[in-house]
Amino acid sequence: MIGRLNHIGVATPSIDESVKMYRELLGATSVTEKWAMPEQGVWVCFVNLPNSQIELIEPYGEASPIHAFLAKNPKGGQHHVCFEVENIHEARDALVAKGATVLGEPRIGAHGTLIIFVHPKDMGGMLVELMESPKDAHH
Amino acid sequence: MIGRLNHIGVATPSIDESVKMYRELLGATSVTEKWAMPEQGVWVCFVNLPNSQIELIEPYGEASPIHAFLAKNPKGGQHHVCFEVENIHEARDALVAKGATVLGEPRIGAHGTLIIFVHPKDMGGMLVELMESPKDAHH
């Protein structure tokens, strides 16, 4: 079922500060602009690597789900891992049939394709995002 | 400086149980055998994805550094992220020159090339492994 490791999601109190760190300390050279996803309560920004991406996530608004994560991890840290799948509804149904807890209905994610999240209790303590592979091309 | 996202390191109380989860719930089809790295206090095993890998890490021996992580995260979870670099000594020197805390001297990692770890306090709360790209080929 799972295909490419599309990205790792990293929470941060400040995308601007994190981008500075990735550029200046780790020498990253390709970083997108940040943009808001109000319906998910996050600002996002991607650090592009040759084979994958780092998604930087900063809270947007008072109800952001990232506030609780940052309360426990004030400097930020690894928030989730995203794997690509061919079809999100088939993936969701297969997981539910095997007893996994899928969080919410498929919705549009940061790459414009459908995503779901799977509860860490079923995923070895790791929050897992599944996203449909973009239909245009891999990057 | 940083190149490919070589792997994400995921701690687990049981590699066997984790492999079962990746195979049965997430449909992973390519998983290596596990092997011990006594000098690092870990059992390791890799789940191969088309563009990257998941490194499963289980404690080996009483002094394993993974015991403390699992005490805080009994189900396991994301432990580190590994980026490739061309030259580990140059990467280490550049990071130290910029004030980052590099943990220990370059040593041979699970892929047979030199690795270092960089302290999470300098990396946005994330433990970062840097490894020299294997010289043979990318996989």
TrEMBL record, chains A, B:
Domain VOC, residue spans: 4-133
InterPro entries linked: Glyas_Bleomycin-R_OHBP_Dase (IPR029068), MeMalonyl-CoA_epimerase (IPR017515), MMCE/EMCE_epimerase (IPR051785), VOC_core (IPR037523)
Keywords, alphabetical: Metal-binding
Statement: the UniProt record of this protein carries the keyword Metal-binding: yes
One example GO MF annotation: metal ion binding
Any one GO biological process: L-methylmalonyl-CoA metabolic process
NCBIfam families reported in the protein's UniProt record: metmalonyl_epim (TIGR03081)
Family named by the database record: Belongs to the methylmalonyl-CoA epimerase family.
Protein known as: Methylmalonyl-CoA epimerase
Organism (species): Caulobacter endophyticus
Gene behind this protein: mce
